[in-house]
Amino acid sequence: MKELLLMLADIWMIFAGFFYGWKLIRQYGNYLLGLEWLIIATSGSNFLAWSLLGGDTGSPMYAIAYFFDAFSRSVGVSLILIMGLMRVTHRYKPTKAVDIAVFALGIVAGLYLRQFHGHGLHVVPAVFYVVVNAISTVFLIYFSWRLWKIRARGLAVAAALTTAAAATIAVTYDFFPIPGDDEYGTIFYILALSTWGTQAFVYFLSYRALHDHNVATDAEGASNEPSIARS
Predict the structure, then answer these.
(1) Contact of 43 with 72, CB cutoff 8 Å
(2) Among 15, 55, 158, 169, which residue has the fewest nearby CB atoms (within 10 Å)?
């Protein structure tokens, strides 16, 4: 039953990452957020394939899984996430050079930090992951407040709860193993994969709400210009 739930949680994350990542790119041209969602989905696909093929720790997919994990935990669901959401909170649109640079940074971080997975607790990288997640959490609290401010109350609550769940997962990841969990952390990964997939889903809906609000505000401002000029 636990293995089935793990597969379902992973499939949910894969679907959410690919589906909403593509929509972010296609509908809004947000390559930062869209590509990060696609990376998360690709990571989940790699994990699913590795599991179905026997879960050999000597497989290249095992090392690839650690790379994707380090990429997203260090730069992806932190700097890239914040910059991507700033498109609707601050109307920030980075240049292509910035997009490329931030993903290059993520690749370098992922390649370096993957060496610290396994073989016990590595305190410095573990603390680093928690710190960057805390920074992201602060921004996401602000993001939720922006949703509340435009009267998207349901999405504001959903985003806040999802953020709280993700922050709990981040702290639990290295420092607080779930009592009674097996050596592979199956219960933890069921919760983690479910949460990460829900982040892709909820943050997309929230992004869309803020984007539509910005468009409506711009249209209202433009329609008022002639009347202001005549007055």
Answers:
(1) yes
(2) 55
